[in-house]
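**User:** Here is a favour to ask of a fellow structure person. Please take any protein you like and set down a full record of it. No explanation is needed for now; the record alone will do.

**Assistant:**
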Amino acid sequence: MAIGTAQSVGMVGLRGFIVQMQAFISPGLPHFSIIGLPDTSVNEARERVRSACSASGFRWPETRVTVNLSPASLPKRGAAHDLAIAVSVLAAGRMIPTKDFDGMIALGELNLDGSVLPINGILPMLMHGARRGVRKAFVPAANMDEAELIPGIDVIGLHHLTELILQLGGTCELKTSSANTFAESSSSPLSNVSVTGPATPGNRDPATTSPAHPQGSGGVDMSQVSGQESAKWALTVAAAGGHHLIMTGPPGSGKTMLAERLPTILPPLGEVEQLEVASIRSLCGTLQQYGVTDIPPFEAPHHTASNASLVGGGGGLAQPGAITRAHHGVLFMDEAPEFSPRVLQSLREPLETGLVALARSQGTTVYPARFQLLMAANPCPCGFAYGTGEPCTCASRERRRYWNRLSGPILDRIDIQTEVLDVPCLPADSGSEKDSSESIRATVIAAREQARLRYQEHGWRCNAEATGGWLREHSSPAVLARVDQALRTSLLSMRGADRALRLAWTLADLHGHDGPETEDIDLGIHLRTRLS
């Protein structure tokens, strides 16, 4: 009996688990099978691994070969296990020295000629491996920039299966070309992923930016928005406290332009947040496009987006959607009432918990989804209900139907409501430095730092994450009296009362107060109920 072992990492959402490969070569008719809940891609590894080993100079066993993927209770998906499957089979056939593979993992997809192809999710896989004591990892050379972000692991980049065999002490002779010839003809492994330090909005390398990201348009800045002082202030409050916001106004008033500039006034991401965002992008296969940066992500799905594309979905184990890709950043929903009501309703739980749980046939996948929601809407289907001088062509029934698509529970979870009207003339101080993103961002960072110091023993990063109980306990009687009055007059719901208090604490931070005063809570209630 000949058994060979190797290890890789499987993923369920962003949660990893070590996959133990056991290859068993036994007498019988030639047959290669993989067991242990493999998906279609893992099952197809049989042909990839067999061809890659043959192309690398190894004679495939002419007997029965069985590879077990443990733990058998968890589904294995993707081609990332190809390398480890090949190692386990070669070890079982005594074609490489059998050794203790504990503390060592192999990740990568094999091509039929033995070349090692890049995979998605290498960053979260190695992060899990590091937590489980992995000391050495073999990864595709094209993933090396990404893999080297994880400290404490000796990462070795591979262009070809033969390089892995030689690293493990085996010998091989390629039938068509040598490993060195292949490596020379391959592109450099350090090619595409850019790793950047703290960056300021506007000087980010466009090559690492998605066209959908506002930073990719060549240095957007809040000073480019003419007028709209009220809307800019609302965005400043939203950025300082992490609050959700909806803007309404006629077409062409600047709602989308303002929304695209929200990331430029948000505080930079911390190291842990950068790794979380990079892990999500690695899993989605977009890390090479964005790079690792401290700029918060910005996702703007089209109003025809399906429920699966927004919150995540797909067969088997669900894939992340736009709300997960917007984790620690901004989710902008332009023309919000045009979204499907089912899609809008699916935001309710993530807005409260910061997580999205997707139940599928093969299990439940939980993804992080702590994003800042920013909505924009016209006042009616034609857009000319007010503020333009143009006559509105919508019947009252059409207006009600239009706004009824944004249900009460969704609007109740949005902290700030503001109007964006047409600017009648170009302001004299348009583009001044006081309205620049850099200036506003400094104000936001100062307010966030005050909140961080206040909540550091609780682990909350901003006022939007503070609990209602803590806010009520530390608010003055005069402030609570204003909230009670708004509750008695049905101006606020119980959820709305807590959110108005959070706004009051944010306004206090912006005004330099130790705690909210009556003018802060009055302005907070006004911002929350402006469209009511």
